[in-house]
Structures are given as C-alpha cells and as structure tokens.
Amino acid sequence: MRALLVSALIAATATACTWVPIETAGKAVQVLPAGPIPGGCQLKGEIVVSVKDKVAFYNRNALRVQEELETLARNEAPSAGANAVQAAAAPSDGSQRFKAYSCPRR
Predict the structure, then answer these.
(1) Which of 3, 8, 31, 77 is most solvent-facing, going by the fewest CB within 10 Å?
(2) 50 Cβ partners below 8 Å, 6+ apart?
(3) At residue 58, what are phi and psi to the nearest 5 degrees?
(4) pTM value?
C-alpha cells in the first residue's frame, strides 16, 4: 500500500510540476523546421530552455519533454524581439538551444 501511495505521489508530481502552458505572445511564434531559414528572416539571438527530464528514478517521456522545451522557447521568443524559433541542437538532459528569428509575416 505504501509503495502504491509513493508511486502515485511521484506520478502526480511529475505531471503537475512540469506542464508548460503556452502564453498568449508565444502562440504567435512560428516554429521553423530544421534546414535553411526562409528568406527575409533576421537572427535575433539564441534561447536556451530547460525542463525536468526525470523525477526521482522516473525518466519522463522524451516527446513530452521536447514539446515542453519548444513551448518554453516560443514563450521566450517575443522578449528577444523574435517571432520564430528553430532548434539549434537536439534536447539533452532536459535542455535545448533554439535560434530566435524575426521573420516577415506571410
């Protein structure tokens, strides 16, 4: 019974503490695919974001971690004067680098 309670507590903590909501300004930020940058985009800087990729001995779902990292990058982009982000590297240990761009609206 005690092990079940501890497991439930860890699972609840893992999902409750790491969920990342998209902010209003972040909704307007485009995520660019890997590859060449569309014409007219200007580099504004680099954004580094991180989330918990494991809680205690539990490794979180890699796709969920990647989604949260992307959401955090989108939320940070407007403060850098950017309206688009592109992953500059793959996620590693719950952290990821993104390039921030200001691109013409299409």
Answers:
(1) 3
(2) 69, 72, 94, 95, 96
(3) -95, 120
(4) 0.80
Query: How many beta carbons lie within 10 A of that of residue 32, not counting itself?
Result: 18
Compute the average pLDDT of residues 25-49.
96
| Cα separation, 13 vs 32, whole angstroms | 32
pLDDT at position 63 over 90: yes
With contact defined as beta carbons under 8 Å apart, do 14 and 58 qualify?
yes
Longest distance between any two alpha carbons in the chain, whole Å: 60
Q: Provide the pLDDT for residue 26.
A: 97
CB 47 within 8 A of CB 41: no
